[in-house]
Amino acid sequence: MLKVGVLGAGHLGKIHLRLLQQSEKYELVGFYDENHENGEKIAKEFGYKQFDTIAKLIHAVDVIDIVTPTLSHYKCAKVAIKSGKHVFIEKPISNSVEEAEEIIALAKEYNVKGQVGHVERFNPAFIATKDLIENPMFIETHRLAEFNPRGTDVPVVLDLMIHDIDVILSVVKSKVKSVNASGVSILSETPDIANARIEFENGCVANLTSSRISLKNMRKTRFFQKDAYISVDFLEKKCEVVKMKDAPENPGDFDMILQNAEGVKKQIYFANPDVSQNNAILDELDTFADAINSNGTPVVTLEDGTEALRVAYQIIESSKK
After folding, report:
1. Which residue intervals define the domain GFO/IDH/MocA-like oxidoreductase in the entry (predicted)?
2. Helix or strand or coil: residue 171?
């Protein structure tokens, strides 16, 4: 089992601590939190070992799980990697693309593995449909959340939209051609609502909307491709696949047939992929252990996290124009 330590014991850090303790692939050694009083409370309540310095925790483990505020991701990753430790970094990978690129370079130099916590890649509804998503040409996403002060220290693009950016980049096998965006600040110093249009070199267009001051929660993405429509509800963990094929010569009474102006007939049918419920956070942590043990490639690489961050900042810059 890999010995693992957690940096940061806030809301998400506590979840990681609990799941790592449950995991059959890690031995949870302990954690460090810069708020020592909060750390003492968590150690007392759950029995996790609290370390009084980052250096001592890093020395005691094989893997460091970084769940600190984004501003400190780079600093924490740099220290861990230079100590020869593998790093799991919660999204976004860092506060700037330059920092992210240096993390990649350091990981190569010290021959360690890294994974970024883009958890929607492990959402069961996305897993059930991702192999059906082939060359999408239009993608529409809505990620809406009720207001929560946690996370408002960064623009909504880095807080929420970056999830969808990563998912889109994972299925569109083409380079980004252009980005146009707008953003509005309502309650925060940075935009709380953002809309972006990403055009890819292969002609695919993605339209993304994110809000953290919505009256309801929504996390839906729709993929449109030749002869298919795929809807993924990341919140409800449900999916819908609608496909078209050439209509049979003698359709049945209940077959759905469409005919266009040229007289071409198509049959609409529904595919219902099995959605196997899982714990996405536990799965992302466990697959990282698998990548380390097998010397394989993590599901969400440091490069993936960096590209998502790069596009996120293109959106942020475009929204300022």
Report:
1. 156-216
2. helix
